[in-house]
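sorry for the late reply, my laptop died twice this morning and i had to redo everyting from scratch. anyway the thing you sent over, i finally got around to it. pasting the sequence first so we're on the same page, its 938 residues, then the predicted structure underneath. double check i copied it right bc i was rushing
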Amino acid sequence: MKLKRCLLMLLMILFSPLVFAQQGGVNVTGSVVEQSSDTPIEQATIRLLSVKDSVMVRGVVSARNGSFTLRNVKKGSYLLYVTFIGYDPLYQPLQITGKKNPVNVGKLELSDGAIELDEALVVGKAPEVTVRNDTVEYNADSYKVTEGSVLEDLLKKMPGVEVDSEGKITVNGKEVKKVMVDGKEFFSDDPKVASKNLPAKMIDKLQVLDKKSDMAQMTGFDDGEEETVINLTVKPGMKQGWFGNAYGGYGSKDRYEGNAMVNRFVNNDQITFMGGANNTNNMGFSDLASTMFSGMGGGGGRRGGFGAGSGITSSGNAGLNFSKEFNPAITFGGNTRYSHSDNDARSKSDRQNILPGASSSYDNSEAMSRTKSDNFGADFRLEWEPDTMTRLIFRPSFSFSHSMNDNFSDATTLDNERDTVNTNKSSNYSESNGYNLNASVDFSRKLNDKGRVFSATLSGGNSDSYSNGMNRSDIVYFNQAEALKNNNIDQRSRYDNKGFNYRAYVSWVEPIGHGNFIQATYSISQRKQEALKNVYNQDADGIYNILDSAYSQSYRNNFISQRASLSFKSQRAKFNYTIGLNLDPSYSSSENFVGDTTLSKITRKVVNLSPMAQFNYMFDKRTNLRIMYNGRTSQPSMTQLQPVADISNPTNITIGNPDLSPRYTNNLFIRFQQFMPEKQRALMIMANGSYIINDIVSYTSYNRETGVKTTTYKNVNGNYSGNVRMMLNTPLRNRKFSINSMTMVSFANSNGYIDEEKNTNRNLILSERGGIDFRSSYLDLGVSGNIRYNATSNSLQKENNQNTFNYGASGYTTIYLPFNFKIESDVNWSANSGYGEGFKQNEILWNASASKSFLKNNQGTLRFKIYDILQQRSNISRSVTASYIQDSEYNTLGSYFMVHLIYRFSLFKGGASTNDVKAPGRGGRRIGPMGPPPGHRF
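ok and here's the structure:
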């Protein structure tokens, strides 16, 4: 018996590996490569899904050589699902019979293209920042924002992204001109609509790219109209139905805000309804009136520039954005929008005007402004592609604006000994109306499959605006004789501004050999403008009907420009380059008149040459280098040329110089981008430089007795500037931690004239911003800090060289509590040194909130939030030029609390809700049921 037991145990030991192998399953091996180049793809995600219920059975990532192994796969029907950022996902049916081990599926080829978001599946922590070709992609889920936050709150947390007080967005120093949603334009050229209104919760990825113009995409040649845009991709699953959110809040000091947005995304069709109102400085649309009526108003006294970011603004808006693909050949989209704003701004500023020798003058002022505006706009886009060789785009647009502006200022000019030279109390009131109407048509036809392309553009526009205003100014000159001491102005004014423009453009692209192309273009454009300004004084009966010819100046401008260009482009597998030369003849005429009397008339004919060169090198899909150079000529404005004094502000008189030469600017741009998927590390280095020949600068003379400045213009050489930026984003060994860094160095050399003497201003700026973040299922925590050093020197007054520091630190935390409670807090510390008295800053801004989510799928949230708990908020800025240093302070929102009710709703295809299509991050989501297409059996 003992012998039989021993033999049985021996047999079990010998054959147990085979038994366990059969029970454990087989190994599935293979490799992931790029389809076009057969290059191995490292860190691609390979998932084995059950065909029955789409549950993930196994998952691995590919090695450096692209290989992978899925171990212990039991027999059955599966679906191999392979993904990598920037490539189309791959589905490979797989049948495991258990008769073969290992099972080799061979090379799995991923094709170049955008990820199909409605099929994307991400498990675990995605990289915060990735780089692919010219696109930088941020993973929105990596940056925590509070409940109810909008896109702007998300942008402020991303490395390299800045949002100023006016809502202007810059990424790595380049201003964002447009926001797109899933590749479709969102409210045309007004990025503020998206940043101020789109809920952060709907955003999956945020992609920053330099988008070429429609014509450049048609021809394949850069036309210099490239613009930086942000493309938002909607979270997976939200493209098959209706979704939206609404929130309302009321708080202390009668603060209120409410906003609602409804979206319907189905396949390639989009429609968005939105509207809101608040008095918390969240102006949801750009103020078209501020641009349309720039330079129009009562005239006379000093007026500060106030925008939505200065003071306190109450606003309301409503809009509709849509894109409809009727069939693969026709897509029609556009938007209509209305906005109202009411801004109350108060400011004080201290300016030191640098004068020759050891002297300076000083301007101190306090101002108040009340501005109301109403804006309506509509933009549309019709794209027609009747076949694969032809494309036509038609874009009409219309806008109308009404504005009311009421200003008061109290200004004092002091001499070097701080004695008063003059005072100026002024008040201005104006009401303005105007419209713009524009349209353009782009056409392109491929004439063969080798690259021969004919393209053409025709565009035009018309504008008309007017303004009625009043101006009162009381000026006292303390050093003048009694008879000249007081200057009192009491006027009424009427501005009329009409404009017309058109442009015609043709292009021919001809292939020459393999991968080489030549482009020849010609364009002609004309811009005509008539600006009438009539200012009236009172008669003996107090009626304003006496024309004041000294203040009334009108212009008629006509500008015709042509451009003929020839460019060569070579395209290779790893690199491409373009070189070209533009010939720019132009004609301009300007007439300055009052009534029927012509004061001056100028006619100019100029021919300019401007070269360009561009080089792009792709080390791989995630590492690239771009170098661009262009030379550009710009003409002086007619205001800079007209030799007629403008005395609308008696203490600041301007007069043009008809002998000015055109300005020629040399620009050099270099950018290196790299993403290392194995470390999830993103690196970007950018450098910009410019050198200007015949730069146009102000030539100012200062009357020390009256404090009056008279400014004309002059050409100078030797003005140049440059900057270098480096952005780094990388996780630590523990992937729950990640760090980001933004380093910037800039230098500018500016030559100008102060009181008729040349002054060279040099400005050096060094800045560093860094942060570290931690994320888990129960706690999110982030800390960041920044420092900025600004050194300014002047050749005229070296003893007044300025060195200032700005310091900052911030932190945020989110604590996830049981029963859907959440506590959120953010703290920002700001301080400076080297500023003038009264403008030093040392403040801590602390906001905190507590929220509770409720209803089915947590669709409702009740939140209590306190803003500026320590009541230390201020609004201080400094500006430095070759002629002055100015510190300014504006009124701003103080501390208040608010109770919010937030509601999110969704109805997707098949009756699903947001809980069924939850975005990757906390929990992931499942791929919908899929039957296995015919495939291999192993």
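The CA atoms of residues 3 and 9 lie 10 Å apart.
thats about all i looked at so far, will dig more tmrw
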